[in-house]
C-alpha cells in the first residue's frame, strides 16, 4: 500500500451573497487548475460593510489535495 502525500494551498474567495458562496467560489476556481481536491479548512472570515449593511463576504481557506508524483 502506497502512502499518500498531500499539498496544501491557501485561497481567498469572496461573494456579495454569503460565506458559503465565497467558499464555493474559491473551490470551484481552484478545481479548474488543481486536481484531486479533497478537503478545505476555513481559516479566516472577513467582510466589508457599506452604510451599515454587509456588502461582501471574504473567506480565507486552506485546500488540501493529493500530490500526484507521477506527473512532476
How is this structure best described in words?
By secondary structure, the chain is of the alpha+beta class. The protein is 17% helix and 53% strand. The chain has 1 helix and 3 strands; from the N terminus they run E-H-E-E. Strands 1-3-2 form a 3-stranded antiparallel β-sheet. A hairpin with a 2-residue loop joins strand 2 (37-50) and strand 3 (53-66). It is elongated, with a radius of gyration of 15 Å.
Overall SS class:
alpha+beta
Name the poorly predicted regions.
none
Helix content: 10-25%
- So how many helices? 1
Q: For the report, how would you describe the main beta sheet?
A: 3 strands, antiparallel
What characteristic shape results from the CA principal axes?
elongated
> What is the subunit arrangement here?
single chain
Number of strands: 3
C-alpha end-to-end distance: 21 Å
Strand order of the largest sheet: 1-3-2
> Can you write the helix and strand succession as a string?
EHEE
Strand content: over 45%
Radius of gyration in whole Å, from Cα?
Answer: 15 Å
Highlighted features:
elongated; 53% strand; 1 helix; 3 strands
Give me the secondary-structure topology.
Layout: E1 6-15, H1 19-30, E2 37-50, E3 53-66
Antiparallel strand pairs: 1-3, 2-3
Summarize the structure.
With 72 residues, the protein is an alpha+beta fold. It has one helix and three strands; from the N terminus they run βαββ.
Amino acid at each position: 500500500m502506497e502512502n499518500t502525500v498531500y499539498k496544501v494551498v491557501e485561497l481567498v474567495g469572496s461573494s456579495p451573497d454569503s460565506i458559503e458562496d465565497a467558499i464555493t467560489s474559491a473551490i470551484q476556481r481552484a478545481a479548474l487548475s488543481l486536481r484531486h481536491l479533497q478537503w478545505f479548512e476555513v481559516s479566516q472570515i472577513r467582510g466589508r460593510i457599506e452604510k451599515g449593511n454587509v456588502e461582501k463576504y471574504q473567506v480565507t481557506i486552506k485546500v488540501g489535495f493529493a500530490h500526484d508524483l507521477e506527473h512532476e
